[in-house]
Structure formats: C-alpha cells, structure tokens
Fold this protein.
Amino acid sequence: MGGSANLVAALQPGEPVILMGPTGMPTHIEANETVMLVGGGLGNAVLFSIGAAFRAAGSKVLYFAGYKKAIDRYKVEEIEAAADVIVWCCDEAPGFTPGRPQDKTFCGNMVQAIAAYTRGELGEAPIPTQAVGRIIAIGSDRMMAAVGLARHNQLKPYFKDGHFAIASINSPMQCMMKEICAQCLQPQCDPVTGKVTYVFSCFNQDQPLDSVDFAGLGARLAQNSLQEKLTTQWISACVHELRLERSVV
C-alpha cells in the first residue's frame, strides 16, 4: 500500500517479478474443532487458505469476511470453499448478496456484525459462536484490537470460556532475513502477570490476541507513513513525465 503498489499496478504480462521476504511460520491447524475466522480487507487473501486447511482436517469454519467497499471483495469462490458459513460484511451499503443459503450479509463494522449474528438478527446461526473453540483474526491492527477487546466486553456472553484467539501481526519488515533488523519486533503483555516480552513477527506472525500490544503495533506501522506518501508522489510524477515523453515521440 503506497508507492510500491503503484509500481505493481503498472506491470505488464510477462514481466519478471522478484519476491523477497520472511516466510513466517505456518498457522497451526487443529482437527475436529469449531473455528471462527475474522478477516478484514487484505486479510482475506490469507484466511481462505487457512479455512480450507481447517475444513480438510475435519473442523467447522465460521467466517466473517469484512471489506470497506463492495468493489474490494475478491476470491469469492475460494472463500466459500473455505467456510461452512460466511457472514459477508461491508461498510458500504447495500452490502453483498450471499451466494449460498446458509451465508449472511451485514452492513457495518466487524464487531457489530459478530454481535448481530450471535443475537440472531441475521437469521438462524448454523454455527453458534458458543461452539467456537478457536478464533483467528487477520486484518488491520484496529480491527483486530477491536475484536480482541469486544470478546471480553459486549461479546463475552456469546463465547465460551477458554476459547483460544490469535491475531496475525502485520508488523513492518525491513531486512527480510528473519530476526535480524528488529523492525518487526512486537511487544506482548501477559494479561495475567503483566510481564512484557518481545517477539519477532517475521518469525511467527500468529500471536495470542490478548497479549498483543496494539498501541505499539500501530505506532510501528505509522512510522513509514510519510515516506510512503512521498514515494507515491515521486512515482506518480515520474510516470506522468514518462507518458509525456512517449506522447512527444
């Protein structure tokens, strides 16, 4: 998201692409569980493969897929194949039209969608949240923080005690070599003891939702904001200049 995304948009078919980055760690897949996936925007590009793995292991998957705009949705068939029940969420009205009888639709944010589903406002809940033993959230730091907090407040009556929740942490990366530069270093605070520890997100992106210091993550993610905006402006100017030269030729 930024200048690099503009360059990717300008790629032509057949151009070589070199990818580099930390590989993280595979998400732990449990068999015969009831799993709730919570995806926001680009997080859904990861979650549908995780959902497919859980279903292949015999687990049931309840999937909340959220998007800011209706045009942002993609890989619909893959997401449907990765979930037993989907709640399609969109900030933009009128939202989505579910493609399967068991799926739901909701206009609003993720916490509101989960609350509406659990209260039966979207119709019958084929997979009740009380049956969920594991939650995996992938999306913006604000969305994941909101879901994590809501589980202990307005959504608490709808989840069983002892369920396990993790967040996939999208810390900024730099060295792309795993545990070298510490740009991705993420503070965690034990909710029981208060002890603070630090982990390399490039080594393990899946972290306990209740332990993640989201304020620290937000600050780290914002540190490159100015650089990204400047890079976007430079690339736009260069592309504009290149188009002018080609039009003259």
